[in-house]
Amino acid sequence: MTTWSCRDGSVPLIVKRSEAMSSISDNGKSNNPLGRPPGAGRGHGRMALRGRQVDPAALAEVRQILGAATVERTLLVEYLHQIQDTEGCLRHRHLAALAHCLRLSLAEVYEVATFYHRFDVVPDEAKPAARTIHICDGLPCQMAGADALANELANDLAAKEGDNCRIIRSACMGRCDGAPVASVGAEHYLIHADATAIQNRLSGPIAPDVAAPVVDFAGYQADGGYQLLRQCLAGERRIDQVITQLEESGLRGLGGAGFPTGRKWRLVAAERGPRLLAVNGDESEPGTFKDRHYLETDPHRFIEGMLLAAWAMDAADIYIYLRDEYPHLRALLQRELAIVTTAGLCQRQIHLRRGAGAYICGEESAMLESIEGKRGLPRQRPPFPSQVGLFGQPTLINNVETLYWARDAINGGANWEHMRSFSVSGRVREPGVKRVPAGISARALIDGHCGGMAAGHELVAFLPGGASGGILPARLADEAMDFGTLEQHGALIGSAGLIVLSQHDDIGAVVANLMRFFAHESCGQCTPCRVGTEKAVTMLAAGKAAADDVAFADLAQVMADASICGLGHAAANPLRCALRYFPGSIA
What we know:
By secondary structure, the chain is α/β, with parallel strands linked by helices. 41% of the residues lie in helices and 14% in strands. It has five domains: 1-47, no CATH class; 56-122, Orthogonal Bundle (Arc Repressor Mutant, subunit A), CATH 1.10.10; 131-202, Glutaredoxin; 217-413, NADH-ubiquinone oxidoreductase 51kDa subunit (Rossmann fold), CATH 3.40.50; 421-581, Ubiquitin-like (UB roll).
């Protein structure tokens, strides 16, 4: 069989090679005087093209939205964002038109669009609601009454708005210190949300959130900012010297894995060029919001660290992958990066890429896949330091906060004070980001930096590392929280998202919430994670008897041992901790 591609990009006809060749003479002219398709009249040809045909009007609309003379397959996720920003959703006809523009199959475009939960894919004939309200379904927000808020809004809006407004329970929005959180539209978020505040927003025009940095470019420079970068660009510092100082500082990756940063820089710098730098700003784990806090307050400290890393790698390009729930930070970074470029401090091409709602893209190889315009599926081989990085080139991958402290760590060297940033939420008086000495205990952090427990609450349990860090009882609240200190208790510090629980929280409900989160966010690539998380949710909902603790333990073991990436490994932590420290809580 031979596939004959149509020049206009329409679905090709598939015909037998013999029939195709028999209809063409030696001089290239047709030998088919009747002009019938090959095989017509003999039961082999088709008078109509197979598959969904591209709507010319939709094709014109998509081309106008993209506005580019040429399109790139690697920008598929970006193009989907552009279409949804303009149309309010992704209709099937626009997906078909986009596939035509990119010369991809409709299946490839559709599978990417439906992989990410921020994309709203609807049939052509559907009429989406004029307004959409997203209410966070993360653990801190559920603890703060998100379920009751959603029910109250559903009842009120059903009477007032009918089908003109819809309510969607969404994954963590990265504002856990302001729980419960809701968004009205795609670019306006409310913290400590209640039904009255949300309905007030619906009554008028909704403007996107904006952010002005607490420390701007001038203020950052006045405090010594960009001095180190200027020295590096002027040749006053050697790459080897800078990396050695970073190694001596002891700075480790602050996205969760804790890999020594200086060692990572050295390994990637030794790779054959061209090299790239990818920044992971897709903090999507419930209980984690420190990257948002630091970008809102002092973005230039991050920008300098990023440019120092690019200088040390001699990176050809920089890719910043920022979660879509931070639209105000996207605008802020675009504005501040333009200032830095105008000042002559940025000599590399920077690509700001939007995430689309997928916790799995916090895993670095899945993030690379998403930047390349694909589904966020973790790769079998680690992307570092081998040649399977971004676009097949050696790639340095650092978290936002890691780069935020890079300048200070380099300047401090062996004398740099090792601190840790905790995102604290839950039953405390003063939630937020707390910069404290590394190895602090949960009790010291709560009592000394969070104003103690909230009124009427007593410490019963805590999650030291967000959703994946496990659940520990209050009797372990005096243990040091740092890399390598909690593993003996079946927990992890990870990205240091401390969620505090009290006597008013049901451990079984907490575990159920976390397992629903992992089931929703599993990429589905491997069976242990895909089926294991769903099975855990089903078993928890069914209220298994205490005798089935063995089944829970077996399920957790399989997920931890056989999953491809860290999501499947860590998804078992809530189950294991509940069985170990809170017997009977999930029975």
